[in-house]
Automatic annotation (TrEMBL):
PANTHER family: HISTONE DEACETYLASE HDAC1, HISTONE DEACETYLASE HDAC1-RELATED
UniProt-listed GO biological process terms: acetoin catabolic process; epigenetic regulation of gene expression
Organism listed in the record: Arthrobacter echini
Record-stated family: Belongs to the histone deacetylase family.
Functional pathway: Ketone degradation; acetoin degradation
Protein's name according to its UniProt entry: Acetoin utilization protein AcuC
Pfam families assigned to the protein according to its UniProt record, in alphabetical order: Hist_deacetyl
SUPFAM superfamilies attached to this UniProt entry: Arginase/deacetylase
Entry GO MF terms: histone deacetylase activity
Keyword entries, A-Z: Acetoin catabolism
Signal peptide stretch: none
Domain Histone deacetylase intervals: 28-323
């Protein structure tokens, strides 16, 4: 496969096999195999060997690091149950059906957080302009509670590190099928952070939140932005919604760094969600976020993974494309998946992985400028968000 011989900018990629220790065991959907297969595919595609791409093992975040976005009581609770995994702590969301306890939970979770903290440091120090932690994106973890397979919120930790080191405005964009509720809650009162989440409506999907009326706390109204997409939105609707909301608010907010969460559980094969996207559309969203970072932030962009539970057929393709987008590589949905990787998947899982990185989908979408259709569920959702948020930033919900 031919990839770009030199990335446009220095790229920091977080990876080490130690990240596979984040393992709830059994038949839990958050299977670390999805990370193993992603790393293997990214390497066999030549992305991790490109000049300018540095692959760095994450450190384990210290309690002090974690305390920037989590309560000391909560970190202590995770430490306690980590050494006694037969216990449960419902008050902190630990040892539940969604987020079971396991031995070594604290260290494994803190390592994922350390990966995104290292990504932030690479941006701050100028050793990288873009960074990818596809093992991160634990967006449901709140200040004092685990939720939805997420224990420590690595994306929030990276954002807080940027703020603590002098960055004035950080834009967080979340395109996971599930609402980025934990990240939103952590920065609810902070106008230095704009969180934008596009997700399947909470009327049909966990965590049941993320409606346009959720705008942020006192003094930060309009800095929490939510687009609750129709349950089976599909490619065109998701892309239309993204381009009707995100670029306009990003330009008004003028971020210095963008942090994004690229959970690929929006895919039509995902066993837990209903949005019915293709890898092609997910790739288009990655390109759009990169373009915003290039245009508004001098390229400074931290991208994380997140949800995604079709562990061999979807997740590795999506997140390898994410690494490729960050690296500026010549890899796209029409690129052939390396045969050696497909052979490995067949031997390991007994399934035939797709031959191409994409799904061959037509991702044409109708621009918002063409007009608003009040009879369309998607358009009503988008307009509700625009009416709620745009005037708070001096934008006209009908025309901007």
């Amino acid at each position: 496969m031919s990839t770009h011989p030199r990335p446009a900018v220095p790229v920091h990629v977080v990876w080490d096999d130690s990240m596979l220790a984040y393992d709830f065991g059994g038949q839990h959907p958050m299977n670390p195999e999805r990370l193993h297969l992603t790393a293997r595919l990214a390497r066999e595609s030549g992305l991790l060997d490109l000049e300018g791409v540095s692959v760095t093992a994450p450190s384990v975040a210290s309690d002090e690091d974690l305390a920037a976005v989590h309560s000391a009581e909560y970190v202590g609770a995770v430490r306690s149950i980590s050494g006694n995994p037969d216990r449960s702590d419902a008050a902190h969301g630990l040892g539940t059906e969604d987020t079971p306890a396991f031995a070594g939970m604290h260290e494994a979770s803190a390592r994922l957080a350390g990966g995104s903290l290292g990504a932030a440091e690479s941006i701050l120090e100028g050793t990288a302009v873009r960074a990818v932690n596809f093992g991160g994106g634990m967006h449901h973890a709140a200040r004092s509670r685990a939720s939805g397979f997420c224990i420590y919120n690595d994306a929030a930790a990276s954002i807080q590190r940027l703020l603590d080191r002098g960055v004035q405005r950080v834009l967080y964009v979340d395109v996971d099928a599930h609402h980025g509720d934990g990240t939103q809650s952590i920065f609810w009162d902070d106008p230095r952070v704009m969180t934008i989440s596009l997700h399947e409506t909470g009327m049909s999907l966990f965590p049941g939140t993320g409606f346009c009326s959720e705008l942020g706390g006192p003094g930060a109204e309009g800095y929490a932005v939510n687009v609750a997409l129709p349950t089976v939105a599909g490619d065109a609707a998701f892309l239309r919604a993204f381009h009707a909301i995100v670029p306009q608010l990003a330009e008004a907010f003028a971020p210095e760094v963008i942090v994004s969460q690229h959970g690929c559980d929006s895919h039509r094969e995902d066993p837990l969600t209903n949005l019915r996207l293709s890898v092609d559309a997910q790739h288009a969203l990655m390109l759009s976020v990169r373009e915003l970072a290039d245009r508004l932030c001098g390229g400074r962009w931290i991208a994380t993974g997140g949800g995604g539970y079709a562990l061999a057929t979807v997740v590795p393709r999506a997140w390898t494309l994410l690494v490729g987008v960050a690296a500026g590589a010549r890899i796209s949905p029409t690129t052939a998946v390396p045969a050696a990787w497909r052979d490995y998947v067949r031997e390991r899982h007994g399934i035939d992985a797709p031959a191409l990185f994409g799904d061959g989908a037509d991702i044409w979408w109708r621009s918002w400028e063409i007009g608003y259709d009040p009879n369309d569920d998607l358009d009503r959702t988008v307009m509700a968000t625009r009416k709620a948020v745009f005037p708070l930033h001096g934008l006209d919900p009908w025309f901007d």
